[in-house]
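Running this now, will post back.
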Amino acid sequence: KRLVQKRLASGELVAPFGDMTVKCHQHYYITTLPGRQWPKIEAFITWLREQVKTTS
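Update: finished.
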């Protein structure tokens, strides 16, 4: 959540399931439907990967 707090606060991103979180100590997963191409989702995944590289 730390990676996206500013964007959540500004409304640029939304939490689709409210304040629900998944607790995971080792890994996080982001998936898309097989065979579907959604440019905005792919852009978000690319951005997220870059954020992980710079904050890990």
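DSSP finds two helices and no strands in the chain. More later if anyone needs it.
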